[in-house]
Amino acid sequence: MSDDLVPFDFSRKLTALQRSLYAYILTLLPNRTDAEDVLQETNLILCRKATEYDPKGHFQGWAFQIARYQVMAHITKSKRSRLQFSTEIIEALAAEEFDNKRMLLSQKALQLCYDLLPDHMERIARLRFREDSQLKDIAKKVGRPLGSISATLHRIRINLIDCVRRKIPMVEAENDL
Amino acid sequence: MNANEVSLKEVELLTVRVLDDQFESKDMERLSVLLESSASARSRYTELVIQDSLLHWETSEVLEFEPSETKTVLFPKLPLVASFAAALLAIFGVWHWNKAIPSASEELATGISAPESDKFASTPVLPTAPQSTPSQLASYKSPSFEAGLEVGGDGPFIRSIEARREARNGMAILAEKKRFSEGGLVEFREDIVVWNRQEHLSVPAELGILPLKGDRMIKMSKLDIDVGTQSAEVSDTLRVLDLREIIRNQEASNVRLNTSVFFNQSLGIVRKSTEFSLTVHAIKSEDGEPNRSIGHLETSLNSDLDPITWEELNSEFEIPKGTDFLVVALNARREGSNALIPELGGLYADQLHLGLVVNEQDAIRL
After folding, report:
1. pTM of this prediction?
2. Chain B window 228-267: which residues touch A at a Cβ cutoff of 8 Å?
3. B-chain residues near A107 (CB < 8 A)
4. Which residues of B are less than 8 Å from A115 in CB distance?
5. Better pLDDT: B230 or B49
6. How far apart are CA B30 and CA B45, in angstroms?
7. How does pLDDT run along chain A (177 residues), one tens digit per residue?
8. Residue B260 burial (CB count, 10 A)
9. Which CATH number fits the domain B78-365, given the four candidates 3.30.1330.10, 3.20.20.70, 3.30.565.10, 2.60.120.260?
10. Where in chain B is the domain with CATH 2.60.120.260?
11. In the Cβ-directed half-sphere of A57, how many Cα atoms lie within 13 Å?
C-alpha cells in the first residue's frame, strides 16, 4: 500500500462532499443500505486515487463520476435486487444537474421548515428520519394503522418540499448579506 | 389538474413508497416508466430523494430533530460515517501500524481546569488537520436547551443527547423520590440521595484491561463520530446527587465536591491517546421552570497508550449556592482523522470517588 499521504485539501473536499455524494448515490440507488455500501466503496476508490486528482479540476464532477461507476458495478453484482433502475434510467438521473449550492440552501431551509411541522407530524418524522424506525414499528408506537402512517409521511415530505421552496429565497438572501 | 401534474403526483406517491420500503415490483416498474418519459418527473423524484437523504443525515451543523426549544447538537448516523471511516481505515490502517508516533506536533486545549492535561503526540495520517477554530465550534458553544434541562458551556456532555437524557432521568427519579428504577441504583448516603449508574456500566476484565481494584470497572459507551469536525466523543452520566436536603438541613454555606477517578483505554486499531474528562454540573430546579445548570467544572487528562497503567484525575468543585442537584459525567474525546475510525477497543474508568465537604467540616463519601 502506498505510503503517500492524502493531501489535506483533498480530504477536506471529500469530507465536505459526503452529504452530497450520499444524496447523489441515493437518487441512483434508492435503497439506503445499498447507497451506504456504494458510498463506502466510492470513498475507498477516491482515497486511493487521491494522488491522481488534479487540484484545479472539478472535484465534485470527478467524485460523482466515480460514484456512478460504483452504482453500475453494484447493480451488476446484485441483479436480483428489486430496488434497481435500469442502466438507461440511471444514466438519465445521473445527467440531472446536481446543484450543490442549492442543496446546502435546501438543508438550511429544511431546518426551518422542520421546526414548523405540527407536533403530531414532528413525532412521526422523528421516529422515521431520526430513529430510523420502520413504518410498522411507528404504527405500533403511535397506535395508528400502517396506511395512516404511510400517508402522513407522504404529507410530511410534500409539506417540507413546498416549504423549502418558499424558504430558499430567504435563506439565500441571508447568505448573501 | 393536467396530465403532467397527474404524473408528478404519481411520481411523488411512488417515490415515497420506495423510500419507505412500502412498494411492490409493479410500483418500481411504473416509476421507471415515468422517470424515463419525463425530465420533470426525474426532477421531482430527485428532489424528494435528496430531501430524504438530508432528513436522514443528521449533522451537528444543520438539522435538529428536537423541539425548537431544544437546541441540541446531533452526531452523524454511525453507519454513514462508518462507511467513510472504514474507507480511511482501509487505506491508512497498515501505514499507521508501521509508523512510530512522532513527537508532539499539536497542542490540544483540554478544558477549563486541567492540572493533569498534557500535550500528546498526534500522528497525522493526513497532513495536519486544523484544530477546530472558535468559529467552527460556534455551533457547539451556544447553550444547549432541552425540555427539562438547560446547560451551558462546551464539552462532550453538552453535546450528548443521551448523557443529558440520563441526567434528566436521574433528577426526575430523585425528585419523585423513587426507590428504584431501571438503569441504575438509588442510594442513600446520610442526607444525600444518589442516582448511581455505575453498576449499569460496569464490566469485568476485558480486552487486556484489568480493573484497578476489585473485579469490575466502568466501561464507557462507544464514541460517536462526527465527520464534519473530525472528532469522536462520548459522555456518560454516572451519578446524579440530590443536595436539597443536606443544604437545607445543615444550612450549608460552603459546599465542595472532591472527585477522583482513574482512566484507561485498551489497545485498538488506532494507537492514539484519548482525552478523558470528568464534568460536574450544578443544577437548580424550580417549579414550573426547566432545570438549569448554574455552574460547572470540567477537568481532563490525556491517557497514555499503555493498557496496564491507569491515569488519575482529581478535581475540586465549589458548589454554587442554590444548587439542588449535581450531575457527574465521564467523557472521552478524540480529534483528527483517526477519530473517524470506529473504535474496536474500549474506554474505561475505575475507582470513581466523590466526597462532599460541607462547611469545611463534614465530609461525606459518596
Report:
1. 0.48
2. 228, 230
3. 54, 62-63
4. 68
5. B49
6. 13
7. 444 556 777 888 888 888 899 999 999 999 888 899 999 999 999 988 888 888 888 889 999 999 999 999 988 887 655 667 888 888 889 888 788 888 888 988 998 899 898 988 999 999 999 888 999 999 999 999 999 999 999 999 999 999 999 999 988 887 665
8. 14
9. 2.60.120.260
10. 78-365
11. 13
Residues B328, B236: Cα–Cα separation, whole Å: 9
B54–A43 CB contact, under 8 Å: no
Q: Which of A44, A132, A135 sits opposite B90 (nearest CB)?
A: A44
Confidence at B115, pLDDT banded by 50, 70, 90: very low
Cell (9 digits) for A88: 438507461
Please provide the size of chain A in residues. 177
What confidence tens digit (pLDDT) does each residue in B127-147 have?
333 333 333 333 333 334 444
Report CA dihedral (A122, A125, A130, A135) to the nearest 10 degrees: 140
Question: Which one of B70, B91, B95 makes the best mutation probe of the A interface by having the most chain A beta carbons within 10 Å?
Answer: B91
Predicted pLDDT at B109? 32
d(CA B7, CA B34): 7
Question: Is the model's pLDDT at B243 over the cut of 80?
Answer: yes
Q: How many A-B residue pairs are in contact by the CB < 8 A criterion?
A: 161
Looking at the complex, report in whole angstroms how far the Cα of residue A21 sits from the nearest Cα belonging to chain B.
10
Q: What are phi and psi of B314, to 5 degrees?
A: -120, 155
Strand B149-151 relative to strand B291-302, pairing: parallel
Domains of chain A: 8-94 (1.10.1740), 100-176 (1.10.10)
Q: What backbone torsions phi and psi does residue A45 show, to the nearest 5 degrees?
A: -70, -40
